[in-house]
């Protein structure tokens, strides 16, 4: 580092050095902030000579060897962050002498338990007694083993405990005395046990607890009813990939602030509580790979149910409405299921899933149904002609699938129809004339198909009702050039009664077809516009755009983005300077929400938060790469987000 030089003895001006500013007293080094400086070597024991040192922040370097025991001589030390280095060996017991220590972050090193190298060790059993002021323990992604010290319950200032992805074993200790606890991360240790679940009951006293992540362990036994008495601030509750039995407590909806509930890969039985779908804040729900039986609660909508639609639903003979939309249900719609559910008369909504194969013929038996929505799936084949038997239908939505063939003339029997959307399929043939006989039809969308021939002139086609149709005759000379010119003109039209037109075309075997992007405008990947099938890579693209939108505060459809200039390019061209593109609310949060008295410390914290934001912006750019093969997979995305989250939580927000 250029400023570290014998030519300048003013060490307080050196990069990463902060000194005390007490008038009339010698200036003392109180903080070392040297994150990501590429420093190589061992941590020198002489660091203990800086007797006023309160903060050591050295993550993301290349330190190796062990932690010097001499650190225990720093009696004023409040903060240590040595995360993401290559340290090994035992955590020195001498650290117990640092009674002022509030933050200990050793994430992603190789402390303790390096089996193939012969290193052994574990967290000191008296850790909570000797470090009474500790607030943040960040030691995830190491090889720590042994039991989690029960004495942590005595360190009542603890706010965050990150001990995930280690090799801890034994029963999780009760931590109910930690009234300030906000996050407990113990996932993927493999051998942690629940015992009699008293640890969970004790956590009901932790009213600020928002994150409880225990997945990937050896928790056994029935889920206790005390689960429903956890903090109302609980947002993340993950218990997946354990050996939990019994049923989900019916009072689970008491946790009405939950965003994510993962109970997958256990041995849970019984029915899914009806109330679970009433948690309005729920964003992700995973109950897969258990032994649940009975009916899927009707209240489950816009969650994360996966797998096939169970044929056993045929036992719900009195069902009058079914909504399984916005999940990740896959496979075919079971043949014969809806022939038995002929009491359905309100709605059947299977939209926004990953269903495949064809529309079952027995849909035609739903003669009392008023609304059918199977849009946004991967359903193929033809539209069954017996859908014309559903004479009470008022809404029929089949858009964004892979349907082909002609629109059956039998649909002329749907005299009560009000809304019909067949857009973004591969339908062909002409537009049936019977559409102009539907007197009640208020909305019709046939766009992004391969339809040809004349457009009817009566009914909905003759008034101002919403109708979206594009037909062009390929056999006419100049049809392709005319179509392209029309696309360009339509794209630039702006009117209060028109949505912005997005157009794409492709040629294949001397035929031209309009291909509809599958998804929300601005968030759909480029390959969908070229006719590619829906894919995981496409979802990752949409996630990347959402991430960039959250951080910049700009939608991908903002007027700023035109003529090839996109949200992706907007961010890419700005980096590494992020101040100009950040959402003003985020910039304000970074700049003014730290309780730090010295300017250098305030700037240090701001820089750390900016690095978290920078990582997320780069992740958003990677996810929204134009080529699907250049985008990261979901496992890499998850690892990156977890790393950013833990690093953010490890930032000290108090004066050190």
TrEMBL record:
Highest taxon of the lineage: Eukaryota
Name of the featured protein: non-specific serine/threonine protein kinase
The keyword Signal is assigned to this record: yes
Keywords recorded for this protein, A-Z: ATP-binding, Cell membrane, Glycoprotein, Kinase, Leucine-rich repeat, Membrane, Nucleotide-binding, Repeat, Serine/threonine-protein kinase, Signal, Transferase, Transmembrane, Transmembrane helix
Principal location class: membrane
Segments forming domain Protein kinase: 327-649
Secretion signal, residue range per the UniProt entry: none
An annotated GO cellular component: plasma membrane
Broad class of enzyme this protein falls into: transferase
Protein's cellular compartments: Cell membrane
Presence of the UniProt keyword Cell inner membrane in the record: no
Species: Digitaria exilis
One Gene Ontology molecular-function label: protein serine/threonine kinase activity
Membrane topology: Single-pass membrane protein
